[in-house]
Amino acid sequence: MMRALWTGAAGMKAQQTNVDTIANNLANVNTIGYKTQKSEFKSLLYQTLQERTTTANGELKPTTAQVGLGAKIAAVNSIYTQGAQFASDSKTAIMVNGDGFFSVRGEDGTAYYTRNGDFNWAIDAQGQRVLTDSMGHQVLDQQGNPITLPNEAGTNSVVFGQYGELAYRNAEGVVELTGQSVGIFQFANPVGLEKVGNNLLAANNVSGLPMNEANTPGVIRSTVAQGFLEGSNVNVADEMVNLIIAQRAYQMNSKAITTSDTMLEEANQLKR
Asked: Which residues make Cβ contacts (< 8 Å) with residue 61, sequence separation at least 6?
């Protein structure tokens, strides 16, 4: 019975993490560029109650008697499928169609990656107009430099090309390239990217090094759509179903603990 108590408690803890993950998905259903997460479970160690032995007739038993000790969370993985496309009135709103990520410079000077293309123009310390995200992080180009706008260009005249090329319309209405392109990067294992908040992701040994789509052979390049933003890929109906399943699993583990406690109580009263 004591084993059942610990097994039920392990299951409740695992399902609580599962509910937390689902709740986070639902909370970010309107977050631009958010990718839904899924909890993965694994079984804990097994205890062998009886080794593979022979019966009284000398016949070999085919299996042993093993009892599991519950479940725990193995990982919480992000599902990097394409989100819905939403129109935006902002001239600096762009979205990625494909597997690429935008790159921004964090406050610590490190390059982070995001699918949120809700960008704006800001003034840096040198008085230049630079492209930033909503948190003020500078958006980086293919060479890892901040994207700047020439003084003669108006913010409403900015045009982004199919692969992120930055251009603007001059006074005569002619499109002129600035020579910069929005950096778009891919990863060998995007599921391994570390989440740091504010829709930012950090590269690590699990995700692999960032691959610049502009100069990496064999990479299928993503395209950029100006005037659109990528919504989250959270499916509310699926999440509500998963929430009900997790709640029922939590209740069943709780019932297992209650039943074990009742059986222990009965065993303690046998002497009476």
From this structure: 52, 53, 54, 55
Q: What is the DSSP string of 67-134?
A: EE--EEEEEEEE--PPPPEEE-S-TTBEEEESS-EEEEE-TTS-EEEES--B-EEEE-TTS-EEEE-T
pLDDT tens-digit profile of 63-118? 777 888 899 999 999 999 999 999 999 999 999 999 999 999 999 999 999 999 99
Tokens representing 193 are 């990217």
CB 213 within 8 A of CB 219: yes
**Which residue is associated with the tokens 């992080």?**
137
Of 116, 155, 160, 110, whose CA–CA distance to 135 is shortest?
116
Q: How far apart are CA 83 and CA 88, in angstroms?
A: 15
Output the pTM of the full model.
0.86
pLDDT tens figures, 170-188: 877 788 899 999 999 999 9
